[in-house]
């Protein structure tokens, strides 16, 4: 029997507000433990939470960017459960009346556009953080994160492979970074993801037993965990066993999922409306005002790059997948006449070095103006394209001005025809076999001879001039 994979994602995103969602404590990351706390976020008796309007605004902004319908009326609920880093023994969240519903994200898979539905987007508070000291029989609790505003984005079970889930997650992250409601740094916990996966007989409408996977610290981990769990469930079903509905943990070191606990249902949390917080009535006029603040989103930007800059779809997709990368590219294009040449360089040389070093575009030490200055050095014949690659690497590593690098390393292109002629004559004398091959019709031999000229001049000979002189000498 063949089986179909069904995947849904629950993504928790910390919002970039300066203060917490129900009190005035700072949300700044990385400060001394338990210094950004107050009686409200610590859940002391008799305190009253007050909703942070900026957090609601950011949540609405995210919902609009994800094509959701905004509820005119929504409320906060208490989600009751005990955990060491949850001081109140309940979390303020939203249950049956969330802020937004019925959204979607479009991903591209195998050359086709697929729409992934978003069931709901709601606002809630974060819990604290447990600190586990190696070798100790206890854990410490840091409550700085308690009360930091979160949005939870729950997808529909529309994904059918680990690849689709990975693409969805990347697209979601890109959109949220574009609208600047979150930095989405998984390493700092500002984007966290739980995945649900089940298998069902191909063609069946009924869902299989769902397994939730936690402890996913990177997008790569999400993909690997789903691939492993899909294989595990398929083997169980093929052998005639049942899949147990449970929560499992991803073990990064071993590359497997392990059982944590049986799966809780919603009624286990004993949700009820929070009596300390008034319901939210969202004014349509306010929603329209927030909508006007939305920037150009990735899909729109991609279409514009293809239309206005003549970029291939792949180039446009890669460049617009990061707001910072797109910003760097556009700043270069404003200073340079050919968007495609800029694209060629950022897609090959810049992206190659970023991947090699494991860096983000924000960490690059040179400015777009320096990059364009280097391109203009090629245009005016000061350096060759080959030399430019060496200059670019030096710029990437040191941040130096390209003109300074060229001057210090003596990389100025040789454009003196007589000087190139002398080198060409030397190459002809030392490579008589290649000369004979060329004269007998083997065009590749000519390329070899030009290469020898470039080698003799350490890449500094003007390639066009080298070609011209060599052809003249070979008759």
Automatic annotation (TrEMBL):
It comes from the Bacteria. Pfam families: GatB_N, GatB_Yqey. Its EC number is 6.3.5.-. It catalyses: L-glutamyl-tRNA(Gln) + L-glutamine + ATP + H2O = L-glutaminyl-tRNA(Gln) + L-glutamate + ADP + phosphate + H(+); L-aspartyl-tRNA(Asn) + L-glutamine + ATP + H2O = L-asparaginyl-tRNA(Asn) + L-glutamate + ADP + phosphate + 2 H(+). One of its GO terms (biological process) is glutaminyl-tRNAGln biosynthesis via transamidation. Residues 327-474 form the Asn/Gln amidotransferase domain. SUPFAM superfamilies: GatB/YqeY motif (SSF89095), Glutamine synthetase/guanido kinase (SSF55931). Keywords: ATP-binding, Ligase, Nucleotide-binding, Protein biosynthesis, Transferase. Allows the formation of correctly charged Asn-tRNA(Asn) or Gln-tRNA(Gln) through the transamidation of misacylated Asp-tRNA(Asn) or Glu-tRNA(Gln) in organisms which lack either or both of asparaginyl-tRNA or glutaminyl-tRNA synthetases. The reaction takes place in the presence of glutamine and ATP through an activated phospho-Asp-tRNA(Asn) or phospho-Glu-tRNA(Gln). Belongs to the GatB/GatE family. GatB subfamily. This is Aspartyl/glutamyl-tRNA(Asn/Gln) amidotransferase subunit B. It comes from Thermovenabulum gondwanense. The lineage of its organism: Bacteria, Bacillati, Bacillota, Clostridia, Thermosediminibacterales. The gene is gatB_1.
């Amino acid at each position: 029997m063949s089986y179909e994979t069904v995947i849904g994602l629950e993504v928790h995103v910390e919002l970039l507000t300066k203060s917490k969602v129900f009190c005035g404590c700072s949300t700044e990351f990385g400060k001394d433990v338990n210094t950004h706390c107050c009686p409200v976020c610590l859940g002391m008796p008799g305190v009253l939470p007050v909703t942070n309007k900026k957090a609601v605004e950011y949540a609405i902004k995210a919902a609009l960017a994800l094509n959701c319908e905004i509820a005119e009326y929504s409320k906060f609920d208490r989600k009751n459960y005990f955990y060491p880093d949850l001081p109140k023994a309940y979390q303020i969240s939203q249950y049956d009346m969330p802020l937004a519903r019925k959204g979607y994200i479009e991903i591209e898979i195998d050359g086709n556009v697929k729409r992934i539905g978003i069931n709901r987007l709601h606002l809630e508070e974060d819990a604290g953080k447990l600190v586990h000291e190696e070798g100790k029989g206890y854990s410490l609790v840091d409550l700085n994160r308690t009360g930091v505003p979160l949005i939870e984005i729950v997808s529909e079970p529309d994904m059918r492979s680990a690849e689709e889930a990975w693409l969805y997650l990347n697209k979601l992250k890109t959109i949220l970074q574009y609208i600047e409601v979150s930095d989405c740094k998984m390493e700092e916990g500002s984007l966290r993801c739980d995945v649900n996966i089940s298998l069902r007989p191909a063609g069946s409408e009924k869902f299989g037993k769902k397994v939730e996977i936690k402890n996913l610290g990177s997008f790569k981990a999400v993909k690997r965990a789903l691939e492993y769990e899909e294989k595990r469930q398929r083997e169980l079903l093929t052998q005639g066993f049942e899949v147990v509905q449970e929560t499992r943990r991803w073990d990064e070191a071993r590359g497997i999922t392990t059982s944590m606990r049986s799966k809780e249902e919603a009624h286990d949390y004993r949700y009820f409306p929070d009596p300390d917080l008034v319901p939210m009535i969202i004014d349509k006029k306010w929603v329209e005002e927030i909508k006007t603040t939305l920037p150009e989103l990735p899909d729109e930007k991609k279409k514009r790059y293809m239309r206005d800059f003549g970029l291939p779809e792949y180039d446009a997709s890669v460049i617009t997948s990061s707001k910072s990368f797109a910003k760097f590219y556009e700043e270069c294009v404003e200073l340079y006449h050919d968007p495609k040449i800029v694209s060629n360089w950022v897609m090959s040389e810049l992206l190659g070095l970023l991947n090699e070093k494991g860096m983000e575009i924000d960490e690059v030490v040179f400015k777009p103006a320096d990059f364009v200055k280097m391109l203009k050095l090629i245009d005016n014949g000061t350096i060759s394209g080959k030399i430019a690659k060496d200059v670019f690497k030096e710029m990437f590593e040191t941040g130096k001005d390209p003109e300074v690098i060229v001057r210090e390393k003596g990389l100025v292109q040789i454009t003196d025809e007589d000087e190139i002629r002398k080198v060409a004559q030397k190459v002809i004398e030392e490579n008589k076999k290649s000369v004979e091959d060329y004269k007998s019709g083997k065009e590749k031999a000519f390329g070899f001879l030009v290469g020898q000229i470039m080698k003799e001049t350490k890449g500094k000979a003007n390639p066009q001039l080298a070609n011209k002189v060599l052809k003249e000498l070979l008759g």
